[in-house]
Amino acid sequence: MFHPEYIDPKKLITNEDILKLFNLVEKHGGVLRFVGGAVRDAISGFPRANIDLVTDLSPSEFSDMCDDEGLRCVPLGIQFYTLGVVINKSFFKVTSLNSEEETYKDEWKNDASLRDLTINAVYADDKGNVFDYYNGIKDLENGVIKFIGKPEDNINSDYIRIMRFFRFCAMFGKKIDRKSLKACIKNKHLLKKVSADKIKEELFKIMTAPYAVRALELLFDNAILDFLIAPPKDLNAMNKLDNLVKKLGIEKSIIRRIFVIFQPDIKRANRLADIFRLNKEEKDYLTALISSKLTITNFKDSVSINKSLYRYGKELCRDKWLCLNLDNPDLYNIRSTLNTVDSTVIPTFPVTGKDLIKTGADTKFLGMYLDVLKKEWFEKGCCLSKDDLLKIYKEQF
User: Fold this and answer.
1) Spatial distance between the Cα atoms of 349 and 370, rounded to a whole number of angstroms
2) DSSP label of 346
3) Which of 49, 234, 317, 320 is the 20 to 30 Å CA partner of 71?
4) In 3D, which of 172, 308, 170, 330 has the Cα closest to residue 248?
5) Helix, coil or strand: residue 347
6) How far is CA 323 from CA 144, 291, 320, in A?
7) Which residues pair with 182 in a beta bridge?
8) 94 - beta bridge partners?
9) How far is residue 87 CA from its own chain's centroid?
């Protein structure tokens, strides 16, 4: 199916180097097209994905073209007919049409038939013309996630496509193609043969997608990943969290999502950090969120907030406050407390060992003196001044 001028080319062409590549391929008698994520996301209005390009030039013909034009060309995956080309400071990945079936009438449709989902088998040229061989645009518009051809055959060509099915359900899915879902469930055992890192990468993308809950429900209800991860305790909590942060105009956070749906202890947090590919900083923050003892009462007034900020910092206090209010309809109160957290300066304990030495304190007991004063200062809401604390020191010691 050919859709003339379906896409504004500006959504696909990010710089003049891409146009130069299109012109060079045409000059050498070939055709070059965008495919997959870039086209899909341009149509759907999503932020642009990485650019993938396909040409009807063979790898050797494309490589010869690069040599003739003085361009650097490097092999990326010859078994997949993929080369990389550098133009000025831009790098592009270009795949040649899979022409194993030389008698196939339409080599572009043949290439499309070898892709995973209908929404990922849409092509476009540099003029904005779109080529859709499997009604991918219609499926994208309707939110239907569907394998091309026979689902089981599609999955057997690359087992990770099971996870990609759920990932795109999390990104675009409004309706589930039952045949495709059934094939994923029937063949879920094949995922045990897939690299754990590949599965974790897909899980991370699912977890950060707009409709993550829908995809996670399908995954866990059908025990797709029972060999890797235990089901979350409260998936609906993610919906509540997402609705709350949307109303407040706050960005979504994978850490908050993991925290509210899994409600993990420290041991499980370490496992989840590995599964969702969290870096050390993210893992440490998830652990801190779990370890914090904050409750609603820790935000009841300015004194309580002062103490919470001193102990845990602003980011953790904000996130914990959000997670504590998933069922609170009082948006004004939630926002007001967040504003107080944001506007409050994190308290700093005002007394140092040098201050005590100036008063004649015995240096052998400085640590003990400071601990006592810090405890007093904290109990009073972190509001006592240096003079207040030095007066307490003189009275007690």
Assistant:
1) 10
2) P
3) 49
4) 330
5) coil
6) 32, 14, 5
7) none
8) 53, 83
9) 30
